[in-house]
Amino acid sequence: VFPETSLKVTGVDFLKSQNTRQHHTDGYNIKNLVVRRGQPFQVQVSLSRELRAGDKLSMRFGIGENPMKNKGSLLSLKPEREDFNGWKISIVKKNGNECLLSVTSSPSAPVGKYNLHVKTGTNIYKPENGVIYLLFNPWCEDDVVYMASEAEKKEYVLNDTGCIYVGSAYSIFNRPWNFGQFEDFVLDACMYLLDKSKLSLTERRDPANVSRAMSALVNANDDSGVLMGSWSGNYIGGTPPMDWIGSVTILQKYYKTKKPVRYGQCWVFAGVLNTVMRCLGVPSRCVSTFDSAHDTDANLTVDIYLNEKGEKLNISFDSVWNFHVWNDVWMKRTDLPDGFNGWQAIDSTPQEQSQGRFQCGPCPVKAVREGDVYLPYDSKFVYAEVNADRVYWLVKKVNGKEKYFKLATETQDIGKNISTKAVGENKREDITREYKYPEGSKEERMSMQRAYSFLHPSGLMPRSGYASTVQTLGGNTQTLVPKEPVTKTGLHLEITNTEPLHPGNPLEMAITVKVSTPGNWTVGLIGSCQLQYYTGKVQANLGTTKETISLEGPSEMQIPLKIAPDAYMKTLSSVEDEVLIIVTAVAEVEETNDKLTKETSMRFHYPPITLQMPETAKLYNDFNCAFIFKNKLNVTLENCKLLVEGLGIFKMTTFELGDIMPGRIMKSEVICTPTRLGEKKMVAKLISNQIKGISAEKAITITE
């Protein structure tokens, strides 16, 4: 054979715009081809001459540092021959020296970056930008992340904006968050994390392994991952957790420096993990649980200690977080018995170690609901987060020694209003029923008994029966007497605010004591007001009240609790976190010894920011966006900053605004240049010493 007839490749066209549209990857801002596994994509190969029957042509896909055939990291594909790894290529059409090939990867192929070379005879051609990114494919029925509903895929895979629910159970609000999985360097950051995870090629096939590894790598605790957590209240040398409005800046900074970014708290960890999972093609959502238990010894009780004034003490290892945010990822669990497919909880907030690393999940949400807490991974911890009992203890000095008296056990308090953003609209969807059966239902009792049988194999009955165990501070386990369901006097407590809770104003609240049984009753009431972090840690004691009241049942009485601004403003402006107002009340009926404890957390109320911009704009045509804020409070807001980001329309920017006096109106304007089509969102957040975050968002449609 004469050398001039030897076949050479002269060019490869990855047909990027056609392939990425079909693979729903046209959003990624990257030169390379990004495709999803298990679905064909086309490549146009230009040759030095026409392809003939005897010619040897193969496409070689290599993954990792040193691809080898026998390790499965080098795939050599020849037309019309199915490869042993479930990949295949075929010739779609030949036209002169042009050859159109179709490549289908295996629906269980390892995800990651593949290097493509084309081999003809002994010649190897290495195309420019020949690295192909292969992702999970929720559009492919044979992929374990397959999701049938188009609307759900649009939300859980393709939506790059959203919101995260925070606050407290009785005042839930949403924080807008830009996930930005398609932005510059975000996909590369995720690929870097995959490499850093040291998952084997086989492990990279399964989203359960990948999501567990990502839950470990989004926190910096063991492996210099993406985000360093801090709950200290002082964030010098980093960005306070309240100052982020999206994942993009965090992941870009991490990818550039390869060092942990400071600082995150649970919603930041969840926002970033959501970005990473959506970016890799696994359907993912942020999940917020209100009154979430952090039960360190998994005995399903969280102990809360009060002093004689009714103030909470920071002495317990366990805690109840006002809210906690984690993620659910969607997949079939091929490693588990049937019945546990669908949503799986993963959590990257570093709370407890699992198998020696700060990682959590994937834990099947159905296992939490059914009480199957023996299933991997970390189902005991997740179960306790939404099901523990809250036990209140009174700490009294008796003869100079501290004694602990049990006040009450709350069984229906933990794991309320589990929330995520609804599919296709900007509202809250309550998914509590996916995590637990209705309180008091037959199913709930059976699930509880199942869970207890795995958590307490010693045969103790769960709370639906008559006993539950608590660890007293001495460490010995005692069995408690059965709880009486209703007190003899029908004692009931309610805590409300009687005026809006504006920073700079007195905090005006009330504790309402009710008795429903006829008779004359003497009720001793202690009440306290404190500022606390969302993690349950008390930051400041603001005031207490102690009353003895006489009630003729059935009746009620309102006891006011008023806190002057001086009592809390200093604390409010000295910490860099948002704090909640917490009121705890303990009532005791003298005649019957009935005791009741009630705790309510409330958040401060802030004036709004308004965004003004057009409803629509044309691609690459500038438009104006204005931010207007009127300080309706009685205090000056010091060191104000405005954070602004609009994916595809405006790069993340921070504007320093100085101090805004009471009554003053602040107006800022920016010019936006839309670089992408479709519905885009502008997100703004105002931060000052006194207020840790007033957010606003507005949508705009970009047309051609």
TrEMBL record:
<dbReference type="GO" id="GO:0046872">
    <property type="term" value="F:metal ion binding"/>
</dbReference>
<feature type="binding site">
    <location>
        <position position="444"/>
    </location>
    <ligand>
        <name>Ca(2+)</name>
    </ligand>
</feature>
<dbReference type="Pfam" id="PF00927">
    <property type="entry name" value="Transglut_C"/>
</dbReference>
<dbReference type="InterPro" id="IPR002931">
    <property type="entry name" value="Transglutaminase-like"/>
</dbReference>
<dbReference type="InterPro" id="IPR014756">
    <property type="entry name" value="Ig_E-set"/>
</dbReference>
<feature type="active site">
    <location>
        <position position="347"/>
    </location>
</feature>
<dbReference type="InterPro" id="IPR038765">
    <property type="entry name" value="Papain-like_cys_pep_sf"/>
</dbReference>
<protein>
    <recommendedName>
        <fullName>protein-glutamine gamma-glutamyltransferase</fullName>
        <ecNumber>2.3.2.13</ecNumber>
    </recommendedName>
</protein>
<feature type="active site">
    <location>
        <position position="266"/>
    </location>
</feature>
<dbReference type="Pfam" id="PF00868">
    <property type="entry name" value="Transglut_N"/>
</dbReference>
<feature type="domain" description="Transglutaminase-like">
    <location>
        <begin position="258"/>
        <end position="350"/>
    </location>
</feature>
<feature type="binding site">
    <location>
        <position position="439"/>
    </location>
    <ligand>
        <name>Ca(2+)</name>
    </ligand>
</feature>
<dbReference type="GO" id="GO:0003810">
    <property type="term" value="F:protein-glutamine gamma-glutamyltransferase activity"/>
</dbReference>
<dbReference type="InterPro" id="IPR023608">
    <property type="entry name" value="Transglutaminase_animal"/>
</dbReference>
<dbReference type="InterPro" id="IPR050779">
    <property type="entry name" value="Transglutaminase"/>
</dbReference>
<keyword id="KW-0808">Transferase</keyword>
<dbReference type="Pfam" id="PF01841">
    <property type="entry name" value="Transglut_core"/>
</dbReference>
<feature type="binding site">
    <location>
        <position position="387"/>
    </location>
    <ligand>
        <name>Ca(2+)</name>
    </ligand>
</feature>
<dbReference type="InterPro" id="IPR001102">
    <property type="entry name" value="Transglutaminase_N"/>
</dbReference>
<feature type="binding site">
    <location>
        <position position="389"/>
    </location>
    <ligand>
        <name>Ca(2+)</name>
    </ligand>
</feature>
<dbReference type="InterPro" id="IPR036238">
    <property type="entry name" value="Transglutaminase_C_sf"/>
</dbReference>
<dbReference type="InterPro" id="IPR036985">
    <property type="entry name" value="Transglutaminase-like_sf"/>
</dbReference>
<dbReference type="InterPro" id="IPR013808">
    <property type="entry name" value="Transglutaminase_AS"/>
</dbReference>
<dbReference type="InterPro" id="IPR008958">
    <property type="entry name" value="Transglutaminase_C"/>
</dbReference>
<keyword id="KW-0106">Calcium</keyword>
<feature type="active site">
    <location>
        <position position="324"/>
    </location>
</feature>
<keyword id="KW-0479">Metal-binding</keyword>
<comment type="similarity">
    <text>Belongs to the transglutaminase superfamily. Transglutaminase family.</text>
</comment>
<dbReference type="InterPro" id="IPR013783">
    <property type="entry name" value="Ig-like_fold"/>
</dbReference>
<keyword id="KW-0012">Acyltransferase</keyword>
